[in-house]
Design a protein that fits this description.
GO cellular component, one term: cytosol
Keywords: Transferase, Tricarboxylic acid cycle
Low-confidence stretches: none
Helix content: 55-70%
Strand order of the largest sheet: 1-2-3
Family: Belongs to the citrate synthase family.
Number of domains: 2
Distance between the termini: 35 Å
CATH class of the largest domain: Mainly Alpha
Order of helices and strands: EEEHHHHHHHHHHHHHHHH
CATH architecture of the largest domain: Orthogonal Bundle
Strand content: under 5%
CATH superfamily of the largest domain: Citrate Synthase, domain 1
Shape: globular
Radius of gyration: 21 Å
CATH topology of the largest domain: Citrate Synthase, domain 1
Structural class: mainly alpha
Bound molecules: acetyl coenzyme *A, oxaloacetate ion
Pathway: Carbohydrate metabolism; tricarboxylic acid cycle; isocitrate from oxaloacetate: step 1/2
InterPro entries: 2-MeCitrate/Citrate_synth_II, Citrate_synth-like_lrg_a-sub, Citrate_synth-like_sm_a-sub, Citrate_synthase, Citrate_synthase_AS, Citrate_synthase_bac-typ, Citrate_synthase_sf
Mean pLDDT: 98
Number of strands: 3
Length: about 375
């Protein structure tokens, strides 16, 4: 048997959703640079699910549906209030998304129509869950979703209780666009594995959230901010990074399984971080980030991935770092569900092999003789 550790380079399916070829990322054939500069998150969600950009009427209809489904069942808010106040929001999100299935009469209906509806419902409800728990953790009441704000704006509104500035909304919306899909990344693959058994969409998204949480994947964005806070000042960059490299620790937000010459999303987030830094008048985190970028390239030849500059973008938007990975999930759920729909449409059980290297010819000995 030939072993592809970490399934590196293994192609397991055809997909029409997103592609990474020669370092260029596209969603449904549209270059990510074009979408990042011009499209809204709602347009991108529609594009991922349906394969084409919506007409004005289709976009309005999707926005309306997202607003209509943004409320979560009272039981979910009750559940959030009952949880310990100090657990990771990704654990909370994983648990609540799983339990939302119990309140959805379509949960076990695996028709295409029902699954498309559930993709919209999940996308609509996840921001409400994230912001409700964030407020409950601070001893505050959750803020109900407000109609007419738009997806990005409504998240910031539910988090703070105040309508955000257009500049914040634009930056946040662009970050959501940049995170929406990424070919067969670990969490999307995990969602496809669950879907491959013909389980339901809530199970597949719950699987994906659990997979995104890890620091080698979506959890890296929170760890980037933790590293910046640990370093704290410019003069400590060189010694702290060097010590991490000497200890063979990973520098969070750098490196990528597929991109070896840079992640095309990182330049957008770097520029957004730079702009937000200058608008807030606090350039410290941005300046530190660019220094770290230079140093890590010099020492290891590694470039920033999507997680590196998203950390400072969210920080400049006033978002606490424990919410960075949940925000990733709130965007990526559109990509996950697009892949889940595609998996159902062309399904085959995903079941690779392992080469056995354990003991052989063992003979059972009864417990009193061991
Ligand atoms: C949204 C996302 O999921 S983007 C990725 C987010 N994750 C991170 O930012 C965590 C930090 N980065 C990493 O751990 C890795 O680069 C991964 C997991 C993203 C990719 O991993 P792989 O493709 O398996 O690369 P692998 O870990 O084999 O790295 C190859 C070499 O580069 C080194 N390397 C890779 N990334 C880093 C890093 N961030 N810091 C230090 N060294 C690194 C490895 O130690 C290894 O060195 P070696 O050959 O001397 O042992
Ligand atoms: O594709 C990957 O391996 C990780 C990644 O960048 C993403 O999920 O956005």
């Amino acid at each position: 048997m030939t072993i592809a550790r970490g399934l590196e380079g293994v192609v397991v399916c055809n997909s029409e959703i997103s592609s990474i070829v020669d370092g260029v990322l596209t969603y449904r054939g549209y270059n990510i640079d074009d979408l990042a500069d011009n499209a809204t998150f709602e347009e991108v969600a529609f594009l991922l699910w349906n394969g084409y950009l919506p007409t004005k009427a289709e976009l309005d209809q999707l926005k309306e549906k997202l607003e209509q489904h943004a409320e979560v069942p009272k039981a979910a808010i009750h559940q959030l209030k009952m949880f310990p106040k100090d657990v990771h929001p990704m654990s909370v999100l994983r648990t609540v998304v799983s339990s939302l299935a119990l309140f959805d009469e379509e949960a076990e209906d695996n028709s295409v129509e029902a699954n498309k509806n559930k993709a919209i419902k999940l996308t609509a409800k996840i921001p409400t869950v994230i912001t409700a728990y964030a407020r409950i953790q601070q001893g505050l009441e959750p803020v109900a979703p407000k109609k007419g704000l738009g997806f990005a704006s409504n998240f910031l509104y539910m988090l703070t209780g105040k309508e955000p500035t257009p500049v914040s909304v634009k930056a946040f919306d662009k970050a959501l666009v940049l995170h929406a899909d990424h070919e067969l990344n670990a969490s999307t693959f995990a969602a496809r594995v669950t879907t491959g058994t013909l389980s339901d969409i809530y199970s597949a998204v719950t699987t994906a959230i659990g997979t995104l949480k890890g620091p080698l994947h979506g959890g890296a964005n929170e760890q980037v901010m933790a590293t910046l806070e640990e370093i704290a000042t410019m003069d400590r960059i060189q010694p702290v990074i060097q010590a991490k490299l000497d200890n063979k620790e990973k520098i969070m937000g750098f490196g990528h399984r597929v991109y070896k010459n840079g992640d095309p999303r990182a330049k957008h987030l770097r520029e957004m971080s730079r702009q937000l830094a200058s608008q807030t008048g606090d350039t410290k985190w941005f300046d530190m980030s660019t220094e770290i970028e230079k140093l890590v390239y010099e020492k290891k030849g590694l470039q920033p991935n999507v997680d590196f500059y998203s950390a400072t973008v969210y920080t400049y938007l006033g978002i606490p770092r424990k919410l960075f990975t949940p925000i990733f999930a709130m965007s990526r759920v559109t990509g996950w569900t697009a892949h889940i729909l595609e998996q159902y449409a062309h399904n085959r059980l995903i079941r690779p092999r392992a080469e056995y290297v354990g003991k052989t010819n063992q003979v059972y000995v009864s417990v009193d003789q061991r």
